């Protein structure tokens, strides 16, 4: 993810925070899914459980923002921002195209839960491409 620079303190802090947020995300997913499967909650509890996994993803986005703020190397920060912008553009393009396909050709709707994983995959692809430009 970081073009062969892993000794950077900001990168190490980011990776540590990222792992913590993803552990919480995994725990929240397991708790929410098993609670819905076994107990079928209703009311405010159901709302809280449905939102719970998203908190891990929101925290992960916050860790990336912290990383960008803490990164002292302007070149590395620029690579990350370029990768993020390309990935956002690609994600918006895919979801917009899919929306038109849904409207005109009645293809199966895209579940919004897949938008963030799509962004993450596209971020990885875009970051690889952005880094290749500078090798």
Overview of the structural elements:
- Helix content is 81%, strand content 0%.
- It has 135 residues and is an all-alpha fold.
- The longest helix has 32 residues, at 74-105.
- The model has no long low-confidence stretch (mean pLDDT 95).
Q: How many domain units? A: 2
| Portion of residues within helices | over 70%
Radius of gyration: 18 Å
What characteristic shape results from the CA principal axes? Answer: flat
* Category from helices, strands and their pairing: mainly alpha
Query: What integer is the average pLDDT?
Result: 95
Order of helices and strands: HHHH
Count helical runs.
Answer: 4
First-residue to last-residue Cα separation: 15 Å
* Count of beta strands: 0
State which percent range the strand residues make up: under 5%
For the biggest sheet, the summary is:
none
The poorly predicted ranges are none
What descriptive keywords fit this protein?
135 residues; mainly alpha
Secondary-structure map:
Layout: H1 9-39, H2 43-70, H3 74-105, H4 115-133
Give a concise summary.
This protein has 135 residues and is mainly α.
């Amino acid at each position: 993810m970081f073009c062969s620079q892993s000794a950077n303190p900001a990168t190490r802090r980011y990776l540590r925070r990222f792992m913590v947020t993803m552990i919480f995300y995994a725990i929240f997913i397991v708790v929410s899914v098993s609670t819905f499967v076994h107990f079928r909650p209703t009311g405010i509890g159901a709302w809280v459980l449905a939102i719970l996994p998203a908190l891990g993803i929101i925290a992960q986005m916050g860790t990336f923002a912290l990383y960008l703020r803490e990164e002292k190397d302007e070149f590395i920060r620029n690579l990350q921002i370029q990768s993020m912008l390309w990935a956002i553009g690609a994600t918006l393009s895919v979801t917009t195209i899919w929306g038109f396909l849904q409207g005109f050709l009645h293809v199966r709707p895209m579940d919004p839960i897949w938008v963030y994983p799509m962004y993450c995959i596209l971020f990885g692809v875009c970051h690889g491409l952005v880094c290749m430009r500078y090798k």
